[in-house]
Amino acid sequence: MPIKEIIFSLLFFIAFCMHGTSQEDSLNIWVREIRKPELTASEKKVIGQKIMTIQQKRYRAAVEKQEKEAVENYLWMDSLASLPPFFNEVNDSILIALSFVAQDIDTRKDVRLNALRKIASLNTPEADLFLLDKMSDIMHLEYATGADGELNANYPCFALIVSKALNNWGMITPIFVTLHSVKTEDELLLLAYLLEAISDGATALRIVDFHLDKESGNDLFSNNLNKIKQLIQQK
Amino acid sequence: MLLTVLLYANLQVAHGQLTGNASASFECEVVIDIYNGFYDWQGSGTSFSGGQKLSTGDKQNIGAVTVANLNDTDGDGISDNTDNTVVSGSSGRNEIDLMKIEVRKKNPSAVLSGNVTVNVVSGNVKLWANSTKVMPVTLTGGSVTFPASQLPKVYYIEAVGVSASLRDIKIQASFNGNTDYVVATAVWLTNTNTWNSNTSTPIPGSASLPDCDWLGLVSSINYRWISASTNQRYGFGPFYSGTNHPLSSTLGSNNKENGGRIMFEFTISPPGADQLVSVDVTRQRKNRSYTISEWFQSPLSINSTDFPWEGSDDNEMPNDDTNQILDEDNGITNNKVYSADRPASFIIEQRQIGFKLSKITFFEFVRVGVKGNLNMPNNLNALRGSRGSDKTAWHCVYYFRRGSDMFKLTADNQSSSPNEPQKSPGFKGDGSIAINVASSSPTEFYSVMYAEDFNEWLICDFDGDCFNISANPNGTSWTFNQNGLNIEILQGTMPFETDDTWLFNVFNSSSKLNDINTGSYDVTTNP
Question: Is residue B145 within 8 Å of B116, Cβ to Cβ?
């Protein structure tokens, strides 16, 4: 066996042994080795592949580490949020915990979105009210490539609540509760759409008129409702 | 008293509620009824917003409604007005656009003798014995006659063209010298304007485009999809996309997305048809999207959608229409409705993405239903009503590469180009690297790693072909000029250290394009 092949095989063996302890060290060995002028092109390519493999592994390990750290602290959400809805007190506690995650801007977006999904699945008036109240505070947790997905991306709270709106008359109460606070034009637009999504435009108008009569002395509430009424009529 | 009755009758005529032969129709022993279209009359029947029988007053004053049969309900590729069999297949429904008429005895127990004549008084229509067409009714001088003993008799009216005016279709039944009649309207929408150029100027909600007045769409175009740097609302290029955006903390009030913006105007005929129908602009999409990232040698598919009929869905099923709040104005104002889209990418992507490309072709069209019955569920990607416009084909194609300005994605129109190199984690030096490639340089991934012991850089491609880059005589710069790559590395104030590594991709494609325009585009070609 030529001496060069023996050395080459030996180097492979050393690198193999060192792989488990230090990728950096073995990388440095290969970087030194590949400089040797006596290497043939094919030998050089084999070493080049080793270098690229080590670099790629190092890169992937760094990415995976980041991913793991980002999600491992939130695995509790999946189990807690699956409790039946009649555990009201427990659900209140869950809502508080989930809402903290959903509003934490330092938490990863997919984790926050997952927290919002769990909140939506609680199906309690308090949970729905949270989603309605935070419509403009928690935004852009998803990526939209076009106008079609823009609503979901811009307003994840709204997207979640509108997805379960059809014939969901229990949603009426939180909608009218949230209308007692100051709303932006966009929020009123979405709330008008939500009222329509529960049934249809004509029914939504009747419900709005009913509440207008009922609380005619509350200016903020009345203004919000009148604007919603205009938006429904405009459609 | 007699004068009062006559005066009342004249007033009614003036209001179009009765006609000159109204008294004759009152006397007629044969009655003709009409039903709205948008209904599959086969079997037990399926409503697509229609199928309602019009009341005695409405059948002459309001009239039935359907769409002109210019669509392709059965999805066989033949326009239904020239298709004699419109029966459901793999990508379509039974015909739903024919209006049913029923000619019957006013008194079901009456015994009538003689002939009944059904006459097409006006309107561009055909009569069929079957709701899926198949069996035409031959008209002689615009009429068909049959013995009264065959009553009740059912026909289906096909509007083969668009009504010139409301209620211009009139069908009359005559018996024994007396008549009864019904009227109907066939609507259709036409794509009357498309804005997809940087030089397009209309501002929704303003005097330049007052009929586009739905707040959701107006705010999308005027406040989000507008370019922060040029105020362009349409066409290809970077745009703002709102105050509350994931990139707001990085980019503030600058453009945060890059891609195309387009808006469509559809006009309904006949004028005033909004009193009869509701409409909803919708969209179908086929796309292929890819990224080229670090440690990938070639484009990786990230998203792929086919048109609904290419799978097992109906040819009128939308697959790009989950909401109508932000991108449609379906409220008909002065006979017009609007829709818009902005296929685009965040202007700064995940750090490992070097190239991002997407090829999308769309069909924009309007679906129509009986007014108030075109239900808008939470997910609009469902069959609703019937297609009431041609499908307007359009496309958006973008090829972006990671650029030097904050790694923003910029339009890449060169046949072969490198992206801005990314430093691997832990990079110590603050020097610079400049990369140029020949137009023939192949698609490839490269790592450029520093070895302090030798003051050399090692450049390797994805397959492990490596070259050492020795320092220039000054010892602080390095030049590589080989295999179509030209690389210049300059040391900064902080020296490079071992393992400092730059990563970059080169992407070669003859398909590179950055455009939003009308017409279809073959998205299946190689990226």
Answer: yes
